[in-house]
């Protein structure tokens, strides 16, 4: 029983290998009851089958690469979806959305629905224009803007001003302004009009100067408070040091007083003056003298 379980575990482990550098060697004591050739063949086989993705509504014999350049809706396993144009499917599913692309892992996609959308319609309209035509390009840019395809609208507007530099509509769509006979981008136009970009918004020079003045005053106030705290801390530290010095001097004074009293006590017992030193006056007997 134990041997059969061990053989089953060994077979399962060997069958899970995806590649093997050389010929698989199975120890003789573990080879009983195992189809060695089948195990070797399974272990030496490299897994190379591509991950399949369900394609809707076309399924019979269709693969993703058949729909490159077409509008698709990618349904994700987490419930989300992404609408765009299928760009590539080599290493992952690449979806074109505006002027950018999103790469999706195969195992995160549940299905791909092939259906026309506004991205594909823009590409079809653009391809139908043929030779460069300013009115047609401008109409396409306006349609893209109406469909909230802002990146496509800007891209088409750039083609328009390449052909007609002073096209006011395309310049306005790209946020250009004409100042003193020159077309300037939005940022340069705001600078030319005297505005300053401050914290992601454009403000007048006077407001900018006022903000700088207030912030400078605030910095000075904070610096003054910081210095006041430092001075207060320094004053407390000085007072504490002076207190410790006075305490030390008092202890020294008490020590000197104790030493003086001890010295008087020794003198008193040495010379027989039980009540302390006696002042000797000439002509008077000395009461503290011992006979």
Keywords:
single chain, 291 residues, alpha+beta, SH3 type barrels, 4 domains, 6-stranded mixed beta sheet, two-stranded antiparallel ribbon, 10 strands, disordered N terminus
Structural class of the secondary elements?
alpha+beta
- Overall number of domains: 4
Low-confidence stretches: 1-34, 38-51
What are the secondary-structure elements, in order, as H or E? HHEEEEEEHHHHEEHEEH
Count of DSSP H/I helices: 8
The end-to-end span amounts to 122 Å
- Kindly estimate the percentage of residues that lie in beta strands according to DSSP: 15-25%
For the biggest β-sheet, the strand order reads: 1-6-2-3-4-5
Sheet with the most strands, sense and barrel status: 6 strands, mixed
Radius of gyration: 48 Å
Tell me the helix content.
40-55%
Envelope shape:
elongated
How many E strands? 10
What number is the mean pLDDT?
A: 77
